[in-house]
Amino acid sequence: xxxxxxxxxxxxxxxxxxxxxxxxxxxxxxxxxxxxxxxxxxxxxxxxxxxxxxxxxxxxxxxxxxxxxxxxxxxxxxxxxxxxxxxxxxxxxxxxxxxxxxxxxxxxxxxxxxxxxxxxxxxxxxxxxxxxxxxxxxxxxxxxxxxxxxxxxxxxxxxxxxxxxxxxxxxxxxxxxxxxxxxxxxxxxxxxxxxxxxxxxxxxxxxxxxxxxxxxxxxxxxxxxxxxxxxxxx
Length: 234
Hints:
It is a single chain. By secondary structure, this protein is α+β, with helices and mostly antiparallel strands. It has two domains: 2-93, no CATH class; 98-233, Immunoglobulin-like (Sandwich), CATH 2.60.40. The chain is 33% helix and 38% strand. It contains six helices and 13 strands. It has a seven-stranded mixed β-sheet with strand order 5-2-1-13-12-9-10. The protein has a six-stranded antiparallel β-sheet with strand order 4-3-6-7-8-11. Helix 3 packs across helix 4 (57-69) and helix 4 (57-69) packs across helix 5. The protein is elongated. Mean pLDDT is 77; it is low at 19-24.
């Protein structure tokens, strides 16, 4: 009897899944994803998922994740879908990086370019708005903010004597604005690690840093969360 009941359940589930895959608005479940990626679906089911992927952002993002994890991307995808995945991957990479280019002057800091928001008074202003206001020079220090998936990164650059600067990094929860502890913040130059600290307090400080090109990586135990590309010029 249990075996017969199990067969009935399997038949009912297969029928239910087949009916739901006909609607482009229904997302594939985990089992269907696995079958699709391994090429075990029928041609009809395959085409339905491809059509769904072209119009569904959330499922396209699932495919992006699979493309990142698998050495070879899924074969047989239509050109439109491949282009969509490529664009999503590029956008995700861009979102995980904040670029900052600053001119280090004797009495001021000049922002040459940035992909983050800049603190002006009591508000953070997007870079395009900053350019439209023709604001680029900041006395003594400049603070730049960038939101990533789950975190908010604030970078403060303080001008010091002898053409050096202090780099201060705050990492917060994007929703609660609380400092996230036990993340690692690493300063690199020419692929060499200069300094590395855990966020055990409210901030990480790299003191008396000279002009040059740097990468600041923020990571947890498993992987890198965000990168800061920093170019400080004299």
